[in-house]
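Limitations
The structure tokens in this dataset are predictions for the assembled complex, not deposited experimental models. Users should treat interface geometry with appropriate caution, especially where small molecules or nucleic acid strands are included. An illustrative entry is reproduced here so readers can see what is and is not provided.
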Amino acid sequence: MPNLSTKWLKKSPWIYHVGTGGCNNCDIEILDCLTPRFDVERFGIKLVVSPRHADVLLVSGPVSYHIKSRLQEVYRQVPKPCVVACLGACACSMGIFKDAYSVAGPVDKVIKEIDPNAIFVYVPGCPPKPETMIMGLVKALQKI
Amino acid sequence: MRSIIPIGPFHPLQDEPENFLLTVEGETVVDIDVNLGYIHKGIELLAQQKTYDQVVFLVERICGICSITHTVCFCNAVEDLLKIEIPERAKYIRTILGEIERIHSHLLWMGLAGHFIGYNTVFMWTWKYREPILDMMEILTGNRQSCGMLKVGGVRRDLDNQKLSQLLKTLDELEPKIKMLADAVQDDPVLKARLENVGTLTRKDAIDYCVVGPTARASGVNIDVRRDDPYAAYPYLDWDVIVLNQGDVYAKFLVRVLETLESIKILRQAVQKIPAGDFQLQIREVPPGEGIGRYEAPRGEDIHYVRSNGTNFPERLKVRAPSYINIPSFYASCINQQVADVTITLAAVDPCYSCTERMISAKDIRSNHLWSQKDLIEISSQKTIKIASELGIEPDLPILKKYLLR
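Predicted assembly:
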């Protein structure tokens, strides 16, 4: 149902990036999206420094036990409705770290523990290319 | 009055989660504590459940920026165990990939350093210059990072000679830009004022804290694994090790800019000299034994240790990444700095936390008792006190005492 918040959300989504145990690869590709070649800021997509300002939560990496409660806390602080974008194979399905002893689970499982109705977007790839990330975000906005 | 500023684990400064506790008096930092372990995934145990061929893909994902570093280092370790010499062409391909990675990693750091001091022009420029290098990586190997090119006994795929000549063209375009950046760093009054005499790590501290890589070379310690313990094709190539003496963040910046130029020099020679022929060996079985691989990563010396028991799986893999050694040097470089300068000082060693997050545990087999950090430090300090009293010296243990008091 379109209301005022979703209307503005579609215009210029602000992003908060959470690294939850990835290998840095997705993280530097996110930064790459902000630099002159891809420059997502021209679409109004902006990286913000506080989860309280964010519309989209970009999560990269499998969620380790140490970071699990922190990720849930960050999710609680984001104003709803918000989209959780799982970046990369690890965030979508834990990828190569599936059998590791200190990994709590993929991002969707961890966030559904506190909010079963959360909205997810999956961007697979190791690492996903910046073009793929932008496409994932466009799809996320269509979902709202 | 003392107060503590917590930074992290999620903060806008760096991508990865880590936690710093700065104890400040006014604006001056008097103590620093680093809490790590947020992204520990247990890669070393995971490696014991995978075959040698699979471990190559796993170690590639220790760190995204140094993906070639860890794979070549692991392959060096297994080849040391097997006591084999890989084909010449494979050596050159490893060198080319490694140097491309060094260029992109150094440009990445320079951009982030500009970002940390609020000079976003540097950030945008260097990341723009980095793009053609990543494109070249994609053309040569098929992926921008984590290319899956390495295997034990050589490389997985060959490089096309036509594409290599394209690399030369990219380097010709890149070199004037890096030179411009080097001139800009030396001329720019803002960068100079902001970075000079900030976060100075003296030569003595650098040796005491055993720092490696550009951090050590900026403090006048002349070490480089590529020259000291050559691997791949480095013995056949002509290049210089960049060493500066100031030890401040400015020197670390300059070392990285000049090293990028050296990497371009290495790449040009490697592309010209690369021989034709085989690029991999077939490895049938791995005998029992142990091997050590060393590699000069963009951040410093990387070491992998592999022990085999004759089966298809490594019995033990130990990774010592360069940031693990460089991070404790914060204690020497950040104290008595302004809070505003600490961000760039913390970033100056190019810390990579996904590389660093290893876990060490010591277990007493007889009593099944797990030694904690405090236990180990206590044992260590008792031994120091014992040796010191034997030698007739008053033991001086400021850092150990600091830990023991907690």
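Some entries come with short summary sentences. For this one: Residues 308 and 332 of chain B are 39 Å apart (CA to CA).
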